[in-house]
Amino acid sequence: MTTESTAFEQLVARIEERLAGTDAEVTSPERIRGRHTKTLRECDATIRVGAGSTRLLVLIECRKRAGTQGSPWIEQLVTKADDVAADRVIAVSATPFSEGARNLAELHRIELRQVDEVTGDDIDHWCRHAMFVTMMTTDWETGKWAVEFYLSDDDTDRREISEEHIARVSAEEDAPILFRRGTDESISIRDLLANAGDGLEEGLEPNGPALDKTFRATFPPAYAYMPTTRGNTDVKSIHIALRVRMLKETRLADRFVRYYTPGGETHTEHAEYDFDVGHDMTSTLRVDFPPEGGEKSDK
Question: Which of 136, 109, 133, 135 is closest to 54 using CA atoms?
């Protein structure tokens, strides 16, 4: 048995001792069937916290190799964590991590620890703040839309709009289709749909079938323009016909948490959680943590 293996087994024992009497369940090793690979993936250790369908799964992986641990291992953990649907990933090594590994781990929110540096507070942190929220998001089928431009003089003659521009708008949701007067800031279909409000949600059932919708955006005079064969021309309105569906899913909130206090020090007085809602967009939930014995409020 190697020194690294012994150290990891001792770490697992410390985790079990620390979490004894709680609702956490520690397993080492554990084999989990991957949701993508459909094969059994061996995990060095797991911690499950909570009960029911919203249990928190913490994946702990140990590197039993000498030398600095590089980014390829972190890349492997990203894929593995997604396959077993882990909510948090802890990478433990007996030796330090390379700069590339640290950067990649930060990007994918993987915690890096050297086995002899793990504290009781670390273990508590892995298992606390397991708050789940139900997200309702409106999703649209990328590239499956029809766009009609109404110019300021009510002219809808598409011959004045280049075929190249029409093709780009039809295929890319982030392609610039309009520009704001004065700033020349670009506006894409994604920008328009992200600010559509509740209009697209009417009649949609959570996780139900997609429905055909038409989104209409109207602009004040001299607000936005688009390039045409007669130069930059003001746009009066845009109509976008598309297919939309509503998605409902439960997510672990604190995977993307930022904690704040008025003084700026790390604390749990209030926190902001970022959620990926598709189409390269995020939604932010703010939670205020109350004084001892109080009740928290979601904003």
Answer: 133
Dihedral, 189, 193, 199, 202 alpha carbons, nearest 10: 100
Task: Locate 87 and state its tokens.
Answer: 């909510």
Residue 227: its H or E element:
strand 224-228
| Per-residue pLDDT reduced to its tens digit, 134-173 | 666 777 776 667 777 777 655 555 545 666 666 666 667 7
Class of domain 3-130: alpha beta
Q: How far apart are CA 222 and CA 235, in angstroms?
A: 8
For the chain, first and last CA: distance in Å?
Answer: 52
Rounded-to-integer distance, Cα 266 and Cα 159, Å: 58
The residues near 160 (Cβ < 8 Å, ≥ 6 apart) are 151, 228, 229, 230, 233
Angle 63-66-71 from CA coordinates, rounded to 5°: 55
CA distance 123 to 92: 12
Give burial (CB, 10 Å; 0-12/13-18/19+) of 49: buried
pLDDT digits (tens, 9 = 90+) for 87-136: 889 999 888 899 999 999 988 888 898 888 888 888 887 876 555 566 66
CA distance 40 to 32: 5
Tell me where in the chain the CATH 3.40.1350.10 domain(s) lie.
Answer: 3-130
CA distance 186 to 224: 9
pTM over 0.70: no
Angle, in degrees to the nearest 10, between helices 120-127 and 3-18: 60
* Closest by CA position to 81, among listed 32, 122, 115: 32
DSSP state of 70: -
**Omega of the bond leading into 227 within 30 degrees of 0 (cis):** no
Note whether 257 and 273 are within 8 A (CB).
Answer: yes
Q: Distance between CA 23 and CA 48 in Å, rounded?
A: 8
Alpha carbon distance 28, 48 (integer Å): 12
